[in-house]
Write a structure and sequence with these properties.
Shape: elongated
Number of strands: 0
Number of helices: 4
Radius of gyration: 25 Å
Oligomer: single chain
Distance between the termini: 59 Å
Strand content: under 5%
Length: 76
């Protein structure tokens, strides 16, 4: 451990401190994956029954967004 105030593993009363070694851990390792991760959305049952699978849901969302961009009033 690199901090001055850290308790050494030998001085700790927690038995897990002696079993788990984070000395080679990398801070922020999962942060990039989290940033690029997909969003999980739970559809209401009534809406979910309209689609056979994930691909159909994604296709419908993409078509909606494409049409929305086309029909949006142009900014002048």
């Amino acid at each position: 451990m690199s901090t001055k105030n850290a308790v050494s593993k030998a001085d700790s009363d927690d038995p897990l401190d002696q079993e788990i070694d984070f000395s080679e851990g990398v801070q922020g390792f999962h942060a990039k994956r989290r940033k690029d991760a997909a969003m999980l959305i739970l559809l209401d049952g009534e809406l979910a029954r309209q689609f056979k699978n994930r691909a159909e849901v994604l296709a419908a969302l993409r078509a909606f967004l494409k049409n929305r961009r086309k029909s949006a009033p142009s900014k002048k």
